[in-house]
Amino acid sequence: MGLQISRTALATLIATSDSASPREACGLLLGEGPSITSALPTANVAADPTRHFEIDPVALIAAHRAARDGSGPQVLGYFHSHPNGLARPSATDAQCAARDGRVWVIVASGAITCWCDGSDGFEPLSYAVTEG
Predict the structure, then answer these.
(1) What is the residue-wise DSSP string for 20-85?
(2) Through-space distance between the first and last CA atoms of the chain, rounded to whole angstroms
(3) What is the pLDDT of residues 76-111, one digit of tens each?
(4) What is the spatial order of strands in the sheet that 26-32 belongs to?
(5) Fold of 3-130
(6) Could you tell me if 104 and 26 are in contact, meaning their C-beta atoms sit under 8 angstroms apart?
(7) Which residues are known to be catalytic?
(8) Closest by Cα among 33, 29, 41, 39 to 8
(9) SS3 readout for 69-119
(10) Which of 30, 77, 84, 129 could form a disulfide with 73 if both were Cys (CB 3.0 to 4.6 A apart)?
(11) Greatest CA separation for the chain
């Protein structure tokens, strides 16, 4: 499955990561089907945000509620940054993953990698950047 990521969402991912460093940035990936139309930064409420991320549950619930009632886009997945520069899922990411098929984007060193959180672990996803 190839993703489409809007240029605007990509810019948000990178800017959010850059501004959060040395803490991990995190947030939600919003859109429809395989198309990420926006990235919504959220607070990182992890006990140690320099080493871990935890998406603010209030923002997560609000996004799911908006998607369910039709007032917002679908929650396709999540993003976070790796200030250590490694744009691949960490052992902690693998341990905390829900194996629910959602998309994870990891931002590191000004670039992104995309992953499907599948039942057998993370699988890499290709992506294309679109206008918007």
Answers:
(1) HTTSPPEEEEEEETTEEEEEEEE-B--SSTTT---B-HHHHHHHHHHHHHTSS-EEEEEEEE-TTS
(2) 21
(3) 999 999 999 999 999 999 999 999 999 999 999 999
(4) 121-125, 111-118, 103-108, 74-81, 26-32, 35-42, 3-6, 127-130
(5) Cytidine Deaminase; domain 2 (3.40.140)
(6) no
(7) 24
(8) 39
(9) HCCCCEEEEEEEECCCCCCCCCHHHHHHCCCCCCEEEEEECCEEEEEEEEC
(10) 30
(11) 38
Show the tokens assigned to 36.
């990420």
Q: How far apart are CA 83 and CA 81, in angstroms?
A: 6
Q: Do 127 and 2 contact (CB within 8 A), yes or no?
A: yes
Q: Can you tell me which residue has the tokens 């039709």?
A: 70
The 10s digit of each residue's pLDDT in 14-23 is: 999 999 999 9
